[in-house]
Amino acid sequence: MSKKAIVVQGATCKCQFGSAPDKIKVLSHNKEYANDSQGSKKLIVTTMEIGGATLEMNCFGTCPKLGSPPPPCKPVITEWQDYYEEVTLSNGGNIILESSKAVCAIAGTPCIEIIHHGQIAELCQQNFENTDEDVQGQLNPMVDMNEMLQTEHTHNGIISK
């Protein structure tokens, strides 16, 4: 994949002919997630996200391809191009990358592009465990990494009289 991010639900995309962005929603599966520690929000976008209901607002503002004055856009994605072909998910679709483009039935060209892949960095305990203590000490000398990694005992369940 050479440093291209996987696109997930909530990714922002735009049409080169439209006047506003929209966000992708995944309707073709509910099994494969990326960048989501709880596995409940960030479904992976696949080539099966086609049709007229794959966007949250289902509109990129106005569409000059539909006439003058430009009426509201009603995109219908017919196919995805430049996707990751090496992996097929459970819905039979391939993974969409941030460099992928969608073809709209109205324009007839790959005019819909991803402007933000939808992934957000989330810290977890493993991030703290994998830090280099010396580097962290130089970057932030006010924080003791050993103290951050220690589990705090709450003594729940102990009855004292």
Main sheet summary: 5 strands, antiparallel
Helix amount, in percent?
10-25%
Number of strands: 7
Question: Strand-residue fraction?
Answer: 15-25%
Average pLDDT for all residues: 86
Number of helices: 3
Using only CA atoms, what is the Rg?
22 Å
Question: Can you give keywords for this protein?
Answer:
two-stranded antiparallel sheet, about 15% strand, alpha+beta, 2 domains, 3 helices, five-stranded antiparallel beta sheet, about 160 residues
Topology summary:
Layout: E1 12-15, E2 22-23, E3 77-81, E4 84-88, E5 94-95, E6 101-104, E7 112-116, H1 125-129, H2 133-139, H3 145-149
Antiparallel strand pairs: 1-2, 1-7, 3-6, 4-5, 6-7
Describe the structure.
The chain is elongated. The protein is of the alpha+beta class and 161 residues long. Helices cover 11% and strands 17% of the residues. The protein has helices spanning 125-129, 133-139, 145-149; strands at residues 12-15, 22-23, 77-81, 84-88, 94-95, 101-104, 112-116. The model has no long low-confidence stretch (mean pLDDT 86). The strands form two sheets. The protein has a five-stranded antiparallel sheet with strand order 2-1-7-6-3, with no helix packed on it. The termini are far apart. The protein folds into two domains: 1-120; 121-151, no CATH class. The longest helix is centred in the last third of the chain and has 7 residues, at 133-139. The protein is built from three helices and seven strands.
